[in-house]
Amino acid sequence: MAVLICLEVGTTSPLLIQRGRPLCVKDYTMSWLILILAGLFEVAWAVGLKYTEGFTRLLPSLWTIGSMIISLGLLGLAMKTLPLGTAYAVWVGVGAVGTVILGVVLFQEPINAVRIFSVLLILAGLIGLKLGAAG
Predict the structure, then answer these.
(1) How buried is residue 24: exposed, middle or buried, by Cβ count under 10 Å (0-12/13-18/19+)?
(2) Which of 93, 97, 118, 120 could pair covalently with 126 via S-S, beta carbons 3.0-4.6 A apart?
(3) Distance CA 50, CA 39 (A)
(4) Strands 24-27 and 3-6
(5) What is the pLDDT of residue 27?
(6) CA 12: distance to chain centroid?
(7) Residues 38, 1 contacting (CB under 8 angstroms)
(8) Helices (H) and strands (E) in the chain — how many of each?
(9) What's the rounded Cα separation, in Å, for the pair 45 and 35?
(10) Mean pLDDT, to the nearest integer, of 91-113?
(11) What span, in angstroms and rounded, lies between the C-alpha atoms of 97 and 6?
């Protein structure tokens, strides 16, 4: 969902006019928000898997399957305008970081310097992908 923004001809700023025509830019903000939301739903289904006990519990299983569908649907929407590799990597990264954090909080998984450093590396990679993306 990119929004095309065209700035009006006749403005006084030379940065907004290119060869006498309005400079048009795409605003990818909505696509990035959708992608982050898709990643959060990925966290929801990953954590939900733990509660399904092998899909033997009905309500956690329904929540997990619903979260999977929503997550993939939102990822598909974001990929309409964002680069494939960037969108997929950010989706997985948000899911990985969120799942590690909730694993520590909800399931008392171990936390140590190596795990914290590894999560920070993932976050640095996500920021780098965002900064390096066309949108």
Answers:
(1) exposed
(2) 93
(3) 17
(4) antiparallel
(5) 63
(6) 37
(7) no
(8) 4, 4
(9) 15
(10) 96
(11) 37
Cα(63)–Cα(94) distance, integer angstroms = 19
In tens, the pLDDT along 51-69 reads 999 999 999 999 999 999 9
Whole-prediction pTM: 0.77
Enter the tokens of residue 65: 């399957």
> In this structure, what token pair is assigned to residue 36?
């982050």
pLDDT at 131: 84
**Span between the terminal Cα atoms of the chain, in Å:** 11
Q: What pLDDT was estimated at residue 22?
A: 52
Q: Which residues pair with 122 in a beta bridge?
A: none
Q: Extract the tokens encoding 126.
A: 């996500």
What's CA 28's distance to the chain center, in Å?
12
Alpha-carbon torsion, ordered 51, 56, 61, 64, to 10 deg: 50
pLDDT at site 129: 86
Residue 23 has pLDDT above 80, yes or no: no
Instruction: Locate 100 and state its tokens.
Output: 């590690």
What pLDDT shows up at residue 28? 77
Beta bridge partners of 26: 4
Residues 61 and 52: beta-carbon distance below 8 Å: yes
